[in-house]
Design a protein that fits this description.
Structural class: alpha/beta
Order of helices and strands: EHEEHEHEHEEHEEEHEEHEHHHH
Radius of gyration: 19 Å
Bound molecules: NADP nicotinamide-adenine-dinucleotide phosphate
CATH architecture of the largest domain: 3-Layer(aba) Sandwich
Number of helices: 11
Number of domains: 2
Helix content: 25-40%
Strand order of the largest sheet: 3-2-1-4-5-6-11
Distance between the termini: 44 Å
Strand content: 15-25%
Length: about 300
């Protein structure tokens, strides 16, 4: 018997990247899904089966109404970098409002997506505010699961795709610093499996959502290059020059390619699990690349186009 049949869950960003994979799994289990999103009229891959509502953080009562009757809230909402008035501090405050609204609406559990090595004392707003949000959730009195991924690779991913795009487009690929800092990516399908599995539990859980391989950044770039058939000249540059190149590329592409904070986070080894690397997922990047190499990086994926236009 399918005991989940009558349940409704809410997924933030159900038409976005990881939220789309979580939603697909829930629908396949016969669960009703609602979404909160910044783009309610975006192309709907679920043929009208997911009702969507705007985030309405400025109207908590509305947010509460839109969450009423839901069993679990899967939260993917976050911003990659501050832009205009939307800073990480405001995104964190938005999540405090969202969690509070979920509690008032009687939501049973929150599955929240954070980041590896979120840290209250971090100088990087992304990591610091993620840690603050984790604390807000832990103190909310609600049942929760916190998933901390590093980079999530998959068809709609930005980072791995755009590394491949640069490798395809230019003969030289600049790597900031030694390139020896590490990264432990997780496959989006594995990530969604984990999120849905943890949603069905009651106990409070915190887990690094990481894949089976730890790469140095340079080795990951070289692996991507070898799988797409590029033989670039990899040069090491200091982070100031990397930042300058990234800004120029951003101006040409009308995007933010990589921020200084993202470069710093990578170089500080923050995108690898410190919990002795017990992987929570099994799909290997190299196996996924074998299947995806022909389409990977053929087009550039723009963060600004995805979220700001
Ligand atoms: N992707 C990765 O490699 C990665 C790595 C580590 C951690 N994470 C974490 O995993 C979670 C999900 O990531 P994702 O890549 O799957 O996210 P996503 O689908 O691109 O976005 C998730 C949600 O956040 C909203 N959002 C994103 N950027 C926004 C912005 N600038 N302004 C307003 N709303 C914005 C989206 O709005 P719409 O509904 O309007 O699209 C969506 O509802 C995030 O919490 C992220 O921090 C992701």
């Amino acid at each position: 018997m399918n005991t989940t049949h009558s349940l409704t869950h809410v997924v933030t960003g159900a038409f976005g990247y990881s939220g789309q994979y979580i939603t697909r799994r829930l629908l396949d289990r016969g669960v009703q899904v609602r979404s909160l999103t910044g783009h309610p009229r975006r192309f709907d891959p679920f043929d009208g089966n997911v009702l969507s509502y705007p985030y309405s953080f400025d109207s908590p009562a509305q947010l509460t109404r839109n969450l009423e009757g839901a069993d679990t809230l899967f939260n993917t909402y976050w911003i990659r970098f501050a832009r205009g008035e939307l800073t990480h501090e405001i995104a964190a405050e938005n999540l405090r409002i969202l969690f509070d609204s979920a509690k008032k609406a009687g939501v049973r559990r929150i599955v929240h997506v954070s980041i590896t090595n979120a840290e209250l004392n971090s100088t990087l707003p992304y990591f610091r505010e993620k840690a603050i949000v984790e604390d807000v959730l832990k103190q909310s009195g609600m049942s929760y699961a916190i998933l901390r991924p590093t980079v999530i690779f998959g068809d709609e991913d930005i980072l791995v795709n755009n590394i491949a795009w640069f490798l395809r487009k230019f003969p030289v690929y600049p790597i900031f610093g030694s390139g020896k800092y590490r990264i432990q990516p997780i496959f989006v399908e594995d990530f969604a499996d984990l999120a849905v599995e943890l949603g069905a539990k009651d106990e409070n859980i915190e887990i690094d959502a990481v894949g089976p391989d730890i790469f140095t950044y340079e080795d990951m770039v070289r692996l991507i290059g070898s799988k797409i058939g590029s033989s670039n000249w990899i040069v090491h540059v200091n982070s100031a020059l990397a930042m300058f190149s990234s800004k120029i590329a951003g101006l040409i592409l009308r995007d933010v390619v990589l921020t200084g904070d993202e470069i710093e986070a990578l170089m500080k080894d923050l995108l690898v699990s410190k919990s002795q690397g017990i992987p929570s997922a099994t799909t290997r990047l190299k196996d996924w690349l074998d299947k995806s190499a022909s389409s990977l990086g053929v087009s550039y994926t723009s963060e600004l186009k995805r979220h700001y236009r």
